Amino acid sequence: MEKHLKQISKFVSLVLRHKPETIGLQLNENGWADVQELIDKMNATGADVTLELINTIVETNDKKRFVFNEDKTMIRANQGHSIDVELNLKEVQPPELLYHGTVEKFVEAIRKDGLKKMERHHVHLSKDMETAVNVGSRRGKPFILTIESAKMYADGHKFYLSENEVWLTDEVPVQYIRF
Ligand code: HQG
């Protein structure tokens, strides 16, 4: 069951953040999908998805990746999209420092160009180092960068906080990064 949950959660992530077309689903401009349509279209590809399972995924997902609208007829990913959706993220003042977990092999390029958003909409940062360690560990031995976010903000860079507490910004120029 646990394994099935994780597998479906990854599939939902793929569909709601990156490739809705794999199941012939259309998201609206704000990234929302109709819950029943999502279920039906996933099942049409041979998956085994129920409303109960989707509820469990939304409620128990370790990073709160997904959220329902008020009447629970629509679902979307909180962040992490590579497709073009308008999330209307709220702009907020960041704490003094934020963290980014990466790996050694990217450090030289980051020293040169700063942090770039790459395939995603934003550069992802966290307020605690532990999260950054986890993010970096996805790719190998984590290398943690400390970001002088208060200084960036004072210099006019915008920050957004997603509903699941991921700090987002367009880029981090190298002068704000402590290696
Ligand atoms: C690196 C997961 C070379 C950057 C995680 C990262 C997170 C550069 C990679 C969320 C660079 C992009 C985001 C530059 C940045 N040159 N490499 N100039 N600038 N990079 O996956 O932050 O499971 O797009 O360090 O937990 O790793 O999807 O970003 O290593 O929260 O919910 O380029 O994704 O969440 O990789 O991860 P990603 P990320 P989910």
TrEMBL record:
tRNA-binding as UniProt keyword: no
Q: Which GO terms describe its biological process?
A: tRNA splicing, via endonucleolytic cleavage and ligation
The catalytic activity of this protein is classed by the Enzyme Commission as 2.7.1.-
Q: Does the keyword Oxidoreductase apply?
A: no
Record keywords, A-Z: NAD, Transferase
Question: Where on the tree of life does the source sit, at the highest rank?
Answer: Bacteria
> Which InterPro entries has this protein been placed in?
Ptrans_KptA/Tpt1, RNA_2'-PTrans_C, RNA_2'-PTrans_KptA, RNA_2'-PTrans_N
| Gene Ontology MF terms | NAD+ poly-ADP-ribosyltransferase activity; tRNA 2'-phosphotransferase activity
Give the protein's biological function. Removes the 2'-phosphate from RNA via an intermediate in which the phosphate is ADP-ribosylated by NAD followed by a presumed transesterification to release the RNA and generate ADP-ribose 1''-2''-cyclic phosphate (APPR>P). May function as an ADP-ribosylase.
- Name the family: Belongs to the KptA/TPT1 family.
Name the chain's protein: Probable RNA 2'-phosphotransferase
Record the organism.
Answer: Lacibacter sediminis
What's the source species' lineage? Bacteria, Pseudomonadati, Bacteroidota, Chitinophagia, Chitinophagales
Q: Supply the gene name.
A: kptA
